[in-house]
Amino acid sequence: MKQTFKKDEKLRSRSIIDRLFKRGSKEVQTFYLFPFRVLYFEGTSEARHSTFDDSILSETSDTYQGVPSPLPQVLFSVSKRNFKRAVDRNLIRRRCREAYRLHKPILLQNPEVPYPTSIAFLYLAKEISTYDVIEKAMIKVLRQMAKPN
């Protein structure tokens, strides 16, 4: 699998984002694993098998003949309250995106377990973490989402 993070993997839909952050919603799963709070929609096995088919994906593109990317859409958020300077927020977001980009195949390892369709990673730490800390936390988060319930 290519280690890319293309535009169609970024969560940009306002309606989906609003559904993810709606308080008390039964369809949103959430957990906390320092330094992240993770919100996601649980996918279904049928949706996974209908969208993920290696034979229809080309090596040069993530889409082929209108078939969407088999990967979930992802959002990274860093609090302006904790990090006043945009430079700091961008640094943290960049580190989180890089860790996700390198380790997203963890979500696809077990074909029997449905992976989430939309994920929001909220960075909750009060200080800027090193890339190593963020990477280890991202691996743990992705493994937890890939585990069967």
Automatic annotation (TrEMBL):
Catalytic activity: Endonucleolytic cleavage of RNA, removing 5'-extranucleotides from tRNA precursor
A Pfam family this chain is assigned to: Ribonuclease_P
Assigned EC number: 3.1.26.5
GO molecular function: ribonuclease P activity; tRNA binding
Example GO BP: tRNA 5'-leader removal
Keywords: Endonuclease, Hydrolase, Nuclease, RNA-binding, tRNA processing
The keyword Zinc appears for this protein: no
Enzyme class: hydrolase
InterPro entries named in the record: Ribosomal_Su5_D2-typ_SF, Ribsml_uS5_D2-typ_fold_subgr, RNase_P
Family: Belongs to the RnpA family.
Subunit structure: Consists of a catalytic RNA component (M1 or rnpB) and a protein subunit.
Function description: RNaseP catalyzes the removal of the 5'-leader sequence from pre-tRNA to produce the mature 5'-terminus. It can also cleave other RNA substrates such as 4.5S RNA. The protein component plays an auxiliary but essential role in vivo by binding to the 5'-leader sequence and broadening the substrate specificity of the ribozyme.
Name by which UniProt lists this protein: Ribonuclease P protein component
Species the sequence originates in: Salmonirosea aquatica
Lineage of origin: Bacteria, Pseudomonadati, Bacteroidota, Cytophagia, Cytophagales
